[in-house]
Design a protein that fits this description.
Shape: globular
Strand order of the largest sheet: 5-2-6-1-8-7
Structural class: alpha/beta
Distance between the termini: 8 Å
Number of strands: 8
Largest sheet: 6 strands, mixed
Length: 258
């Protein structure tokens, strides 16, 4: 059965960098079984209603500014797959998850940066999904759980975001890891490995430095974790495959669920 993953997409620059993290993602794409399709929840697509993409061919969205000009020439011409999108919609209906269909939106950098590092040939169909940071963690987990059966059909489910993502705290010229970021991430790892949903769903109160690591104005990068985790509720196993930091506190973590 295909696992699900939470994958940090970091800063857009990782799309053109060659470092420890990009090398890891390149290798990961070669290591796991090639999926039939990829369902990806991106932190950069926020919507009050759950959106499901019915897109034939995705455009590439450059939803960032002020970076290396070469980033704006990158194309990731992924295709969609209507059959799997319809299957997702059926699962949402069965599990009483309200949703809306999206037919035009391209792939934002939370999606294409990760996908390009894993599968540079863009030869796997993608169904892009929105996230709603206004939902409770329980509700986000439920949405992921409703799609768990897709993993039996070799469909890969990914949540793309960042466990520590506070752009007001990043230090672009400093790679020494801030103690508050590491402390939060270690708390998170401990409870993920135990599949301690009570603690995780209440991370804002329970986790050290939670208001700094996951600021209220920026929790959209954290919540894809719950979508990906919910998709492996039938197994309840979490494995940390990679963790590193850039710019003092921006986390590059990869979690495998299932």
């Amino acid at each position: 059965m295909m696992p699900s993953f939470f994958i940090a997409h970091g800063a857009p620059l990782i799309a053109i960098e060659n470092n420890e993290y990009t090398q890891f993602l390149n290798q990961l794409g070669q290591t796991i079984q090639k999926p039939k399709a990829i369902v990806l929840f991106s932190a950069h697509w926020e919507s009050r209603a759950q959106k499901v993409s019915e897109v034939d061919s995705y455009s590439t969205i450059y939803d960032f500014g002020g970076f290396d000009p070469s980033l704006y020439t990158i194309q990731y011409p992924a295709k969609g797959q209507l059959e799997i999108a319809k299957e997702i919609e059926d699962l949402f209906t069965q599990n009483e998850v309200p949703f809306q269909i999206e037919t035009t939106r391209g792939l934002d950098h939370g999606a294409w940066v990760v996908l390009r590092l894993l599968y540079p040939n863009a030869d796997i169909p993608v169904i892009a999904m929105s996230v709603n940071p206004k939902l409770t963690p329980e509700e986000q987990y439920k949405i992921g759980r409703s799609l768990a059966s897709l993993r039996e059909k070799d469909i890969l489910i990914i949540g793309s975001g960042g466990t520590v993502h506070n752009l007001r705290a990043v230090k672009w010229t400093d790679n020494e890891v801030d103690s508050w970021a590491l402390e939060f991430d270690e708390w998170l790892a401990f409870h993920l490995k135990k599949w301690d949903l009570d603690s995780l769903f209440n991370y804002e109160k329970n986790a050290p430095n939670a208001q700094y690591a996951v600021p209220p104005y920026g929790n959209e990068h954290f919540v894809p974790l719950f979508y990906a985790m919910g998709a492996a509720d039938d197994v309840k196993k979490a494995t940390l495959l990679h963790r590193s930091f850039r710019y003092g506190n921006l986390s590059h973590s990869v979690w495998q669920f299932g």
